[in-house]
Amino acid sequence: MAGRFITFEGIDGCGKSTHARSFVDRLAARGVKALLLREPGGTDIGERIRGILLDKAHMNMAMEAELLLFTAARAQLVREVVRPALAAGTVVVLDRFTDSSEAYQGYGRGLDLDEIRQVNRFATGGLVPDSTVLLDLDEDEAARRMGVRPEAADRLDDEGASFMKRVRDGYRKLAQRSPERFRVVSASGSVDEVDERIDAILKEEMTS
What we know:
five-stranded parallel sheet, alpha/beta
């Protein structure tokens, strides 16, 4: 039996990684076989690419190079881990996927959206999530949250509020474009409050 593929998306500082981890923990407590992965990363090759992408020493990275590095790591992850896990009946929960490319490199950087989609289709073999949780948070609040953990900031975190506003607006447009897949969740409030919202939305889907 094929597993389910669920992705978590949102701007930096929205709590995406925390809530993806909490969701996987809840699935495990219910006896559901689940695997949490992150992008870029999840494989030896992907983690090496991640180091290049997030290193502040590479602030001069070309937009096109950034996109291709992200999709290279994605291609390796899909072939090496995601597709085998789904075929084995595992619920795969992925912290970022193709929507991130459209939001960050497309709406954020200004690269052509159609070209981004073509590159992603090639990299993933056309794989599309069953559900995507979009954690929506005001970019000023996201920046405030990031400000309390400056040691965790990376190259993309330093882009500034105007960049993150474009990314957030881009995510909202993606959700409007694919309402059957996106589950938009307010990321305001405590971790427990947001976890409860996510659980309420996805619990029925996971038992169907």
